[in-house]
Amino acid sequence: MSELPLLTAPEPNPETVFFWEQAALKKFFVKTCNDCSQAHWYPRARCPFCESANTEWRESAGLGKIYSFSLVSPAKAPYVIAFVSLDEGPTLLTNIIAPDHADIAIGHLVRVAFAPAGQNMSIPVFTLVTERPSPAL
Amino acid sequence: MSIRGVASIAGIFEHPLRKALDKSVAQLHAEVAAGALADAGLSLRDVDGYFCAGDAPGLGPLSMAEYLNINPRFLNSTDTGGSSYLIHVISAAQAIAAGQCNVALITLAGRPRSEGAVGTGVRGNAQPDMQWESPYRPSVANLYAMFAARHMFEFGTTSEQLAWIKVAASHHAQHNPHAMLRETVTVEDVLNSPVIASPLHRLDCCVVSDGGGAIVVTRPELARELGKPDIRLRGGGAAVKHQAGGKLDLTFTAAVRSGEAAFTEAGVTPADIRYASIYDSFTITVLAQLEDLGFCAKGQGGKFVADGALIAGKGRLAVNTDGGGLCNNHPANRGGVTKIIEAVRQLRGQAHPLVQVPDCRLALAQAMGGTLSTRHVSATLILERM
């Protein structure tokens, strides 16, 4: 189960194409507002908290923890859908990729990885990590 | 402007079929419309307000207006999934109070069981959330399951407690000759059914059924002239909840706000409610709404529903005495209309004798459209027999 699944490709639009171009390069970006300093998800051109249009993409280390999850169809082709709360604040819908599903728990630390999607795209998924990378990283 | 007391539910009809291989969707809408109008003592010629949602075929209410050959002067096609029809009742009351219609017809019908469709959404490229969610294989079940998982983590809710909600529904459904699942089940049956999306088992999930239902809302004077029990709308509320830009909180639903609005308008409290229709797409849906409506404290829903507490005549609160979506019917994958219908039956004294709440004068109908975890609209009605 540790292999990354081939997922359905998302359909970018002019508001989101940057994110998906970067994801294809295995870089994870989060939209952050330059006026209220809050990160949000899913990414929008205008800040959903303060109405500012002064938002920018900021690269994220993709660290967070599991807020909730569900092991789907355990009897056949199981997969794990989850909400992950990023260190930057927002919580997002994703998949957890883990060799052993029994290790997955609410509160577990996770880090972003990229799974292939469609022909030339990749989408952020998360894998279990046991500790934060050192700050010197 | 309050809608308290301005409108009555004069007609109800629930389609008896649970599989409709040889009928069109428009035909099913027409059949439930005819049934509810006949129940009210009215006909299509009397309808001057028409309401439908995304289960109706065609462009909003237009295609069905032509099919039914009606010319209503008030139209509404608000679509919030399963809660649409409760919002339609509120909107109908507003239109009646404003003099914009006198007889409002609300229809729901579909055939997902025949067509093999699950879910209520119309999904397209322009839906802004889809590219961030669809690659991860969300389903109705796993999106509700994550709400359940978080509820268990926060409050210690158990699968056994959730199972009691299904057990109560099955005890009611055994008395409903039209119910899709009429066999009573035990907590063990639920826990031994396959896990669909952890922590939800197969028997935590509602049925997929064809069918539908309709409601006729009129001026109270007209309802009384028609000789029907006057079932009056006493309060109503609707509210939306979503992921809020990433500030997700899966410990509550929008029923917190729709319920408060409805109870405030009605001037009553949960303790006054004798019967409650609570949307039951999944067992967890019921538990969350009971907490959020104030029938018990937040986090105490598991204890509130356990040990048969929702079984009519035995428990503390009769819930979904038709068997609900879990056992009776979830037409078009949207159970909202049947929630109103069973509440009206209880208020009229027309529920099955073995599940009828004695002298039921105040009832609540509660529905939820969308999913508990990503985005949903809750609607609450408080109905009173005058």
Could you characterize what this model shows?
The complex is a heterodimer of chains A (137) and B (386). Chain A is mostly beta strands and 137 residues long. Chain A is built from one helix and eight strands; from the N terminus they run αββββββββ. By secondary structure, chain B is α/β, with parallel strands linked by helices. Chain B has a ten-stranded mixed sheet, with helices on both faces. In chain B, strand 11 and strand 12 form a beta hairpin. In chain B, helix 7 packs across helix 11 and helix 10 packs across helix 11. Chain B is globular, with a radius of gyration of 19 Å. Chain B starts with 7 loop residues before the first strand and ends with a strand. The model of chain B has no long low-confidence stretch (mean pLDDT 96). Classes of the chains: A mainly beta (137), B alpha/beta (386). At the A-B interface, strand 2, strand 4, strand 5 and strand 6 of A face helix 5, helix 6 and strand 5 of B.
| Strand order within the widest beta sheet of chain A | 4-5-6-8-7
How would you spell out the order of helices and strands of chain A? HEEEEEEEE
Major beta sheet of chain A, specifics? 5 strands, mixed, barrel
Number of helices of chain A: 1
| Broad shape of chain B | globular
| Fraction of helical residues of chain B | 25-40%
Q: For the largest sheet of chain B, list the strands in their spatial order.
A: 3-2-4-7-1-8-12-11-9-10
What is the string of helix and strand elements of chain B? EHEHEHEHHHHHEEEHEHEHHEHHEE
Please give the largest β-sheet of chain B. 10 strands, mixed
Rg of chain B, Å, rounded:
19 Å
Low-confidence stretches of chain B: none
| Strand-pairing-aware structural class of chain B | alpha/beta
Tally of strands of chain B: 12
Overall pLDDT confidence of chain A:
92
N-to-C span of chain A: 28 Å
Average per-residue pLDDT of chain B, rounded, comes to 96
CA radius of gyration of chain A: 15 Å
Shape of chain A: globular
